[in-house]
Amino acid sequence: GAGVSQSPRYKVAKRGQDVALRCDPISGHVSLFWYQQALGQGPEFLTYFQNEAQLDKSGLPSDRFFAERPEGSVSTLKIQRTQQEDSAVYLCASSSSRKGAKEVFFGQGTRLTVV
Amino acid sequence: DAKTTQPNSMESNEEEPVHLPCNHSTISGTDYIHWYRQLPSQGPEYVIHGLTSNVNNRMASLAIAEDRKSSTLILHRATLRDAAVYYCILLGGSQGNLIFGKGTKLSVKP
């Protein structure tokens, strides 16, 4: 498809387990964002990539969260030693530019449940 | 980051126009006004954006006040599929991340 693709759509992890969430942005989009959305809340920014460079990781809640985009296309968000408060929908988004004049396209998200 | 203020919820009847307001009194001259919506169990979806002039596209219209301190998203004929949370977001011209508030939850009655 032509949109942002995320996998898996749903993930159940036992507390303490490591998880990896994948994002395939729209082809050619240089900007890639990760957001975390708790139930009933708006999405909260986690981190931003321009091509392979992680330019902003100010929203990552702890050092258990790690994101990479080694070849400037596919990105992976990794959460180590998951905790119950990590349960949320993780959204990936991409854009042809980070400039305000460009729209941002979102994937459908990965719903992570930590039990 | 400049903040926006939106009503928590609004109701509309199907096939009637809907005007969703947004206040952004601290907007800077280079901030674009973006609107996104999020349907249940979906990721946010781009609706429209503008800088100074009113904008129209196939989904909606965006009316921007002359002083740019407020804007209104207009859905010309609401359908049941328009029921969603609508977010008004300011995005800097040179760089920026979408900073989401709580948005307005729009309910559409048949």
Helices and strands in order:
The complex is a heterodimer of chains A (115) and B (110).
Chain A: E1 5-7, E2 10-13, E3 19-24, E4 31-37, E5 44-50, E6 53-56, E7 65-68, E8 75-79, E9 88-95, E10 105-106, E11 110-114
Parallel strand pairs in A: 2-11
Antiparallel strand pairs in A: 1-3, 3-8, 4-5, 4-9, 5-6, 7-8, 9-10, 9-11
Chain B: E1 9-13, E2 18-23, E3 31-38, E4 45-50, E5 55-56, E6 61-64, E7 70-75, E8 84-92, E9 104-109
Parallel strand pairs in B: 1-9
Antiparallel strand pairs in B: 2-7, 3-4, 3-8, 5-6, 6-7, 8-9
Structure in words:
The complex is a heterodimer of chains A (115) and B (110). Chain A has strands at 5-7, 10-13, 19-24, 31-37, 44-50, 53-56, 65-68, 75-79, 88-95, 105-106, 110-114. Chain A is mostly beta strands and 115 residues long. In chain A, β4 and β5 form a beta hairpin. Chain A is built from no helices and eleven strands. In chain A, the strands form two sheets. In chain A, strands 2, 4, 5, 6, 9, 10 and 11 form a seven-stranded mixed beta sheet that branches. A four-stranded antiparallel beta sheet of chain A has the order 1-3-8-7, with no helix packed on it. Chain B has 110 residues and is an all-beta fold. Chain B is 0% helix and 47% strand. Chain B has strands spanning 9-13, 18-23, 31-38, 45-50, 55-56, 61-64, 70-75, 84-92, 104-109. Chain B has a five-stranded mixed beta sheet, with no helix packed on it. Chain B has a four-stranded antiparallel beta sheet with strand order 2-7-6-5, with no helix packed on it. In chain B, a hairpin with a 4-residue loop joins β5 (55-56) and β6. Chain B is globular, with a radius of gyration of 13 Å. Chain B starts with 8 loop residues before the first strand and ends with a strand. In chain B, 38% of the residues are buried. Classes of the chains: A mainly beta (115), B mainly beta (110). The A-B interface holds A 4, 33, 35, 41-45, 48, 56, 91, 93, 98-101, 103-109 and B 30-32, 34, 36, 41-46, 49, 51, 85, 87, 91-103.
